[in-house]
Amino acid sequence: MGITNSFHSHFLVTGSFHNPGPYAGYIMSGVPLSLGIYWITKQRIKKNKASDCEIDYLVKFGNYKLKIPNRDVMLNYLSQLILVLVVILLPSTQSRAAFIGMIIGCLYMVYSFRRTLSQYNKIKLLFQWPSKRIRFIAMMGMVLFLFLGGYLLYLTKKGSADGRILMWRVSTEMIKDKPLLGWGVSGFEAHYGTYQAEWFKEGKGTVSEELVAGTPDAPFNEIVRVLVSLGGVGFVLSILLFRSIWYGRKKGHITSFNGLNTTLKGGVISILVFSMFSYTLDIAPMVVQLLILSVLLVNNQRYPFVLSLGCWKSKYPLFVGHILGVMMLILIPFLSSATWRSFKGYQSWKEAYDLYRYGVYDDANKEYEHANRLLPDDGLLCQMYGKSLQMNEEYDEAKQILLHASSLRSDPILSMTLGQCYQQIGEIKQAETLYWDSWYMIPHKFYPKYLLAKLYQYTGEDKQFVEIANELLSKKMKVKSKAIEEMRNELIGMINNVEDENR
Fold this sequence. Notes:
Structural class: mainly alpha
Number of helices: 21
Keywords: Ligase
Protein name: O-antigen ligase family protein
Shape: globular
Distance between the termini: 63 Å
Number of strands: 4
CATH topology of the domain at 326-440: Serine Threonine Protein Phosphatase 5, Tetratricopeptide repeat
CATH architecture of the domain at 326-440: Alpha Horseshoe
Helix content: over 70%
Strand content: under 5%
Organism: Halosquirtibacter laminarini
Order of helices and strands: HHEEHHHHHHHHHHEEHHHHHHHHH
CATH class of the domain at 326-440: Mainly Alpha
């Protein structure tokens, strides 16, 4: 409504996040949680007398008491308020992943609370109808509804969905090459661009995939991320950890229904479903949210999963928690020092970026150098530092920094900048290879082949220059811009000069 500013120029609703996707993922888990709290408190209120619904008081002055509703009534009203707010807000974010996560979380809640819901019994009667024809029509109707709903969600942002499918297909190639141990924690960021370039170079990509290709830092699917980064071993360990949180330690047969346990699981399910289509582990508030729900879930288990070590010849167990507590106390000084270094590094990075934007490259490079000392393994920082050095015509220094950056991330801008450095120091073959690689990473981009055309014109290879220049002039652009028009006009002038010289 314009009362406060959003944090993204293309979206009106972002909350305190940088775009609507993470914001929608953060709030949508409130729906299954609120449903569970609403149903639990509603049952408790029904069991109590009406007079017991306002027995708590906040302030007492002599005989005067300021009465407020008791906890169950307040939680009931709060859950209804949250349900209304999230249902109103969620459509404005246009996040399909959040919508799917919310729906599946709510379906889990409805199924788990089915014995206490009168509406569920009415739906159940539809599938217990004596006539097989009516049951078949009801089932087919639900299947058709789900199919049409899914197809409409796909059409809502078709390009975005196709882009995710391309990411998952390319990621499969990465998993095939290192199926057991994976590529490491930052392996996706370091190698995805290279694999996508090979994907298009080998002719596996389609024209529609070329238009939606990008070089993301995450695969928009946390299962794929685990398989790429940690391999099959890491995936199995993750499943075992999740199972221990979900079920706890089995002891006997538990038949009683635990409403709070189910409510917590509904929130966890909604976040896990959302993580199948997004980058949940890169969103700090959602990681904290998932951790809190997991801790509450473990704490609420009837027989929680407890890691412990038995002391030899002692009646009292030595819990791992005690050991971890002592270790954390020992590690606090070291963790604090690392956190402070990171904070100062990001501070210098921001100063360097502001100076770079204003073209003060000498001062920017000093700040970038300081930030790089504090954050030596940040690939994006190294890429931006190398670009600043290249803009300041310090090509040898830029080449070294960019080569280090290329071991940490694969990005077309990084390849183009490194190619420009090689071109300036006379290593033409390396520059040509890097320009081709950057184009294959994202084939719909104009700039990589523009640089390649200028390289061929610079080296006097007129035939290759004219061929690529004509290809760019006839190429249909995904996004038109003034910069592309200027490059087109420049290529037309260069072609005319080549033709005049040949005459």
